[in-house]
Amino acid sequence: MNRVFFLLLVREARLMFRRPGELVNPLVFFAIVICLFPLAVGPETQLLRTLSPGLVWVAALLAVLLSLDGLFRSDFEDGSLEQWVVSPHPLGVLVLAKVLAHWLFSGLPLVLLSPVLALMLGLPADRIPVLLASLLLGTPILSLLGAVGAALTVGLKRGGILLTLLILPLYIPVLILGSGVLQAALQGLPTAGYLLWMGSMLTLAITLTPLAIAAGIKISVGE
Amino acid sequence: MNWTWFHRLGSPKWFYGISGRWLPLLIAATVLLVCAGLVWGLAIAPADYQQGNSFRIMYIHVPASFLAQSIYISMAICGVVGLVWKMKIADVALQQSAPIGAWMAFVSLLTGAIWGKPTWGAYWVWDARLTAMLILLFLYFGVIALGQAISNRDSAARACAVLAVVGVINIPIIKYSVEWWNTLHQPASFTLTEKPAMPASMWVPLLLMVLGFYCFYTVVLLMRMRLEILRRESRTSWVRAEVTRLTGRKK
Amino acid sequence: MTDVFLQTRGLTCERDWRVLFSELDLQLRRGQMLQVSGPNGSGKTSLLRLLAGLMQPTEGEILYQGTPLGRQRHELARHSLWIGHAAGIKGLLTPEENLAWLTALQYGASTDAIAQALEAVGLKGFEDVPCHTLSAGQQRRVGLARLHLPQAPALWILDEPFTALDKKAVAQLEGHLAAHCERGGMVIFTTHHELQQRPANFFELELGQQSA
């Protein structure tokens, strides 16, 4: 079972590196959305600094959501998902590997890019570790929850907007906690408690969402 | 333990029969409870010493809020039953509940906004309860939209069941995170319904209204489910006989 | 009764208010080949997907060696192979990588075995090109190469396996399927094409007649 998990990661890595453009798209989207906010609300440093936790988190959330629409689409169209469902391996393990690969290639680059954009918004440099920690804990939850929606809507012609409708309400706790951590850090308050909360939410998501994703895939494939 | 009643519940025909016998009783209970609650709450109960008469909208707002939350939970329970025991009736109940739940969430938000104007001076304040209710409304929209987007009936039912279960696990997390967010940003705001020691003359009509709303939900749900069952089972002989009996003419 | 490998009891399939087939009783023993035929929309693919465990029947049950499928899903998954309209071939991966992954999902195969299987379907020399550069027939063959691997399972469920193949490949595949049945394997498949080579235990199921 571990072997299949590993092999699926390798397969996803191969696929990703043979089409590197898809790796870049969410990053560019993330950067553009961040640039939109100063243009919309004005370049005042103090205002942007106050807003920066929320802006970074909203932009990261939208970027993850955008990349999720295609998560299972090509695997659905070329019949790969059918092969997963009929294989003797637990589907939950396979989808967990798939989501992990997705996070490694779209979530992690976002996390790595975020300090640059946060600095542009005026977040003090000494708060960057908190930003990284919150995104490192938060973006995998976004990927896992989003994969549930992606699995349920993969068989639909216009699943994209529906996916957004299904998943965004579920993202709210992550958004609140993630930007809350940063706000606490900006005000010089301790952040460990919030990060631990996010850690426990991540644990919960890793434990439960593979079951829901697997159920969603079985439904979409069985239609 | 004898489980035959449970499996009998899965038979659409049996359900149609039993629900037909329960409906008149439930309708009577709804009318009685809601009328009593409304008259008592709107006319007899004393005015609030702080809010005056505007608090009376509570008699709609609170039951609607209760119902909006309970309906989502009942949908998730139906979802589990449908997924585990593959019971068709549970699927029907889930999908027919969603629009009622969405309406209740909407009514709760609307009355909350109307109540907010005299209390807070604004129609919308980012109060924890109102925000959580808004998110709940979005969750309902998700279930309804997913159910309508999937053309295959069984797939739609199972997809909605999965979504409802995922949603119900999230609801407590959403609720607490929103409450936490609220205290972080606007400490000690005045919440609408948490009042120290409401006198009995105020809460008894509220209780009647809550019970009345639950009966109302059951009535509407049963009626919607019966219609859906007739639609689904339209090929079977008992439905043909029933439709002939109801319309009084041969098809 | 244990020699009955796969059995259906009162199998009914309903799609979007329409009954495709109802009360279907089937028995498949070792060495048998079953061709499911019938007009378009008669439920051929649905029946195969039900048997492969991709769909849930509306009514009835499927038994694997006498036990309902619910509990035996993983056993059947180990002993059956499903190739649908889309065979799970990734255009960006080479035939070799595709096969390696598809077999790893089930039992795993050595690089040599994969190379031999590709040679058997006439793809020698194409091991290292991405599949999207291959023709439709060649891509089909990549999927079918799984049937030539030494550890291939006993039951093959194939949906339209002859699509896009040229004459020679069709004849070769027919021979391969027949040989598999002679060795005690089983094949369930759909096709609109008239089979030239049939094993001794061939039978045909015509769908779309009982409802008419």
Automatic annotation (TrEMBL), chain A:
GTP-binding in keyword set: no
InterPro entries: Cyt_c_biogenesis_CcmB, Cyt_c_CcmB_bac
A GO cellular-component term linked to this record: plasma membrane
Segments traversing the membrane: 23-42, 100-123, 130-154, 160-182, 194-217
Keyword Ligase part of the UniProt annotation: no
Compartment(s): Cell inner membrane
Keywords: Cell inner membrane, Cell membrane, Cytochrome c-type biogenesis, Membrane, Transmembrane, Transmembrane helix, Transport
Gene Ontology terms describing biological process: cytochrome c biosynthetic process; cytochrome complex assembly
Membrane topology designation: Multi-pass membrane protein
GO MF term (any one): heme transmembrane transporter activity
Its biological purpose: Required for the export of heme to the periplasm for the biogenesis of c-type cytochromes.
Family: Belongs to the CcmB/CycW/HelB family.
NCBIfam families: ccmB (TIGR01190)
Record protein name field: Heme exporter protein B
UniProtKB/TrEMBL annotation, chain B:
Zinc among keywords: no
Membrane topology reported for the UniProt record: Multi-pass membrane protein
InterPro entries (alphabetical): Cyt_c_assembly, Cyt_c_biogenesis_CcmC, Cyt_c_biogenesis_CcsA/CcmC
Protein's cellular compartments: Cell inner membrane; Membrane
Residue ranges of domain Cytochrome c assembly protein in the record: 13-185
Family: Belongs to the CcmC/CycZ/HelC family.
Protein name: Heme exporter protein C
Gene of this entry: ccmC
UniProtKB/TrEMBL annotation, chain C:
Family annotation (Gene3D superfamilies): P-loop containing nucleotide triphosphate hydrolases
Key words of the record: ATP-binding, Cytochrome c-type biogenesis, Membrane, Nucleotide-binding, Translocase, Transport
Stretches assigned to the ABC transporter domain: 6-208
Gene Ontology BP annotations: cytochrome complex assembly
GO MF terms held by the record: ATP binding; ATP hydrolysis activity; transmembrane transporter activity
Organism, scientific name: Thiopseudomonas denitrificans
Family annotation (PROSITE patterns): ABC_TRANSPORTER_2 (PS50893)
UniProt xrefs under SMART domains: AAA (SM00382)
Domain of life: Bacteria
Cell membrane is among the record's keywords: no
Protein name from the UniProt record: Heme exporter protein A
Keyword NADP listed: no
